[in-house]
Amino acid sequence: MILLKLAQMDSLAMIAIGFLALTVLTTFGLGIWVMQQSKSKKVSH
Amino acid sequence: MNVINNPVKVFDLPTRLFHWAFALLFVGAFAIGKFGDDEGAIYPYHMMMGMLMTLALGLRILWGIFGTKYARFSSFKLSPSALIDYFKSIFAGNKKPTLGRNPASSFAAIAMFGLIIALGISGYLMATAATEDQMHDIKEVHEIFATLFLLIAVLHIIGIAVHTITQKDPIGLAMVSGTKAGVDGEVGIENNHALAALAFVLALGAGAWALTTNYDGTSKQLNLFGQTLQLGETEHDEGQGQGEHDEANEKDED
Q: Are B4 and B184 a contacting pair, CB within 8 Å?
């Protein structure tokens, strides 16, 4: 029943899904950036 | 086991593509389903995204059987004792380096896969429900599954953050680059399987194409494999429904 109550809390869901979206995009962006950094380091060596 | 500084390949391209496609599709499907208007033009895309997630999961299950070492389900650490040991080492601040998924991540992945199957089945039952009451009952269950998925996804992210800080092992970034710091005694994978990744992208693309071309925006119906699914309410439905109610009322009055 806790889940049912949670399912009805729109503001909490909005925060959670916003957090999820932000984390997904940030991790992806950061991952690409780190990959590019390590590639450019390899080239300079 | 000791950490070796040389990075090794752990997650192949199909595994990483699936991970990010799955995450983005869930964010999109949940946001539309929760905050979109049931009668809006965008609402049917909630169901289409859900169907694509189910398709992606089907392909991931195949890859979990036939894929590379760390993509295979057999490499998932799914014993409760391993999970308890993992949490103990996290809270004690002991480093326990390992290639592949840690037990918490393994359990989270399996839970999310199971929930997508449950969401797919309940979503299908909603789209084919005979009565509105039946549809609302199934919708309640569907929403509970979706909330549970969101909860696990948030816990998964918190777990990744805690793991990254305490173990100094950026596993979130490993799911982008595919590489991790090598661990003494464990061997990475040799091939990224770019062709399998291409097949995955093509299959998802074909799925999206089939969904959008077989969808009629006016009636909000999707014709797929000889079956018609109602993906949203239309003004016409509402009018018809109201008409039916009026007729019923008239009969009652008679």
A: yes
